[in-house]
């Protein structure tokens, strides 16, 4: 199965930077499914620049509501309207800084699926939770609201899980191969073996190959390194091995 490589630009970048990065990677023929998730204002620009590329454009969040009087929100329909193919939901930064609950994140995923966009549902434990031996319990709780969606017919072709341990994000300290393999196996046991599970947290060109060849790793979600064309294309190339 082709690996998924997803760049998450977070609240970084500019029109100038996205032109610089995308112009260097858009014509490469990667042996992986590659997407970039950019801030809302750049979605149309990126979609236009990638129109002849295999790289897909996605968003980093979506409203849990349908169109209406919700000032400041962006609906799944709007994302689709400007050419997005996917969106991340429930990133730990959204859970932490914006108080998103597991139930709200599951509603966001449901809105994406209703309009035919692919969802990346993020889960991950904090260091305190891991140290207390509660990592799997935390992940299980984050996955719990998805069972209602599965019962309503949602399938593994519509969304995947991104396992991003909070302590590995932006720290330069990726989880160990064993930690990743154990948690990916656990997630697949919770949801079913057909579900793709991506790893995120300090993925770079230098460690991508080791992470991508671990059992149960179907791709990676890349933060900081996706803002650098050389790093990002190095990660995408590592997925071809
Ligand atoms: P870094 O790759 O910068 O650690 O970020 C990971 C992440 O949060 C991707 O969503």
Q: What tags apply to this protein structure?
A:
about 40% helix; alpha/beta; binds 1,3-dihydroxyacetonephosphate; about 240 residues; eight-stranded parallel barrel; TIM Barrel
Describe the structure.
The protein is of the alpha/beta class. It has one domain: TIM Barrel. It contains 11 helices and 8 strands. The protein has helices at 15-25, 43-49, 76-81, 92-98, 102-115, 127-131, 135-143, 146-151, 177-191, 205-212, 229-238, and strands at 4-8, 33-37, 56-59, 86-89, 118-123, 159-163, 197-200, 219-222. Strand 6 (159-163), helix 9 (177-191) and strand 7 (197-200) form a beta-alpha-beta unit.
Order of strands across the biggest sheet? 1-2-3-4-5-6-7-8
Give the distinct bound molecules. Answer: 1,3-dihydroxyacetonephosphate
- Number of helical segments? 11
| CATH fold label | TIM Barrel
CATH homology group? Aldolase class I
Give the SSE string: EHEHEHEHHEHHHEHEHEH
Task: Give the name of the CATH architecture.
Answer: Alpha-Beta Barrel
Structural domain count: 1
The profile of the biggest β sheet is: 8 strands, parallel, barrel
- Roughly how many Å is the radius of gyration? 17 Å
Instruction: Tally the beta strands.
Output: 8
Structural class: alpha/beta
Poorly predicted parts: none
